[in-house]
Structures
1.
Amino acid sequence: MKFAIVTDNSKQQSFYCNSGQFYSLFTNQNIGVIDDLYTNAYFSLPLVMDGYYLNLKDDIWPEENFDIILAAVECDHRYLDILKQVYPDAIIIGQMKEIWNHQINIRNYVIENTNGFVVPYSKLNFFKEYNLQTPRQYFTIPSPVNANYLRDKYYVSKEEKIFDYSNYWASGRASVNNKDILKNSNLETVFYRSENADQFIKHWSPCKYMINTDPSKGYGLMSIQCACMDTIMVGGNSDSQRILFPDLIGIDIDDLSNKLKKLTTDKDFYDHTLMHANEMFERYYSFNAVKIAIEDMYNKLKG
């Protein structure tokens, strides 16, 4: 299957994937190990399928007969019309990439003028939540996490520590109750802020737990990475948190303080929580699960 994701809502230059490696579409050279690519769930989609990622603003159009294109057109609806002209034989479906600069009119244009729409959410009704039209068909395709890369590079033995997590780089996404919950715990707290993916992961990966009291209903990449790396995420309302750590959702101080204490004192509860997260990771967010979901979607659309 010739597969591509495309967007006009990113600074990342266009690339293609082959045998687990990223190659620039401008130079055909191996981009090398860039942690932001290997740890970003959205950019892992072409990695799963040995496909393409096109930044529509690059104005570079590979001479490929794509079977399916996931189009996260979120800034200028005219890019969708160009895609249809350049790749008339491809099945083109809409895709959600970002929410922070969400534009309802453009999103609805894509919904109206594609064969379907892809969202990463399994629990959240994206279209109702954001007052959008309902597409002809919609599919849940989670953005996968590169488990082999994360585990090979960052997995270490766990220590009795808790990482104080807050999404400080996205407006309205900061954790609101971490400090109060941490006051109720005897665990050693690790706090580190950085937009450098490598250093950030190195600081949280030894921690047995992570605390997050972001009230928003996001996708929840951090919860997915935690499940992949055997760190238990405590708190949060994200879609993935509800799947991976269903006993640990929300932002309530008393409830999460009690749950954290139970994790540290009740081995059966700790083991069950981690085992469930590992199983759900493989079922929803592994490369194999996402590849199967994409193939099933394509076969359904192809008829």
2.
Amino acid sequence: MKKILLCLPVLALLAAGFTGCSQQRRWNQEQRKAMRESLRGYRQMTYVNDLNDDEFVVFSDNVAGKLENSYPVYTTFVRMPGMEDSVEMVVVTTVVDELNADPHNMRHIYPYPYLVSQGVLPAGLDRQQQRSFYSCFAAKVNARYATMNQFFNAVLADTTDSSAIRRMENECANDLFGWQITEVDVLEVTD
């Protein structure tokens, strides 16, 4: 009986130690907040810079949650070589996931004001007209590229795919608004 009573404090100490270790395997509020703050550096990315503040909070919480699930020990994660690459990979895959989830999210890559400034769309379209355009555009992108990764690689790597994307934008504008888009090459001659 004495042995059992003497072992109880040791067992209690071990149990407390295991509980303490398991709590360290989850990020605390300060660590999550620090990660969300560090994600603000990604606001200049094409997709992310078009998110309003509320959308960005949801986006950064999603990224921080994925990082926490993949790297449960925060202190090990922030000391890990290549930590920035891991964060960037999760940011990009989150963007791809959001684009796959809703074609209207294409508006974050090709924002409406940008398309107006490029002469692709007229100013003053209502949200339903914009949604129709982005749905058409996403359908054309999905028909041309088998995966979202192919789409991103094409956009980043090749200007001929950029002109193909411009053709898709113009086709959608023509389909929805009855426009005829004609591309004109302008040559400037200087003496």
3.
Amino acid sequence: MNRLIDIIRSVLISPEMLCLVLPIGIWTYWPGPFQFVTTQIYADFKWGVGAALVPTGFFASSYNLGTDLLSPHGARKVLLEWPDYWMLKSRVVMAVIFCGVAVFVVFFALYLIAESKASLGAALLLSGWLSAFAALCSVGLARWKIRELLGE
């Protein structure tokens, strides 16, 4: 039961979720800049395709860092005996899932911009970027801390 509560808490109360929701809240009260971005992407859709690749790169980097962090080789074998290893593993998995969701959100945002020229698309685009970046930073900081603790 504690594991389930911890996983739910790590999803709902996380920097990734804040970064996913914050641009939509800003869009609600101040849609002007998002409308400008939407018209710019709509005018030249190559920018949108490039924008979609940003969270895709974050996803790949997050997966790579997470795999390196959780691989039990060398001094990291002691991590497998650590009682809270499951928390580290669940955080890394959640970060990779957040990056995957961010990729989906960005492609949906581009669809909205291309089909209906909705400024919500620009807000979702920013949401995807920020959420994927926050997830990558979480995994990177965890990797730093583990290296520091293990003296690597």
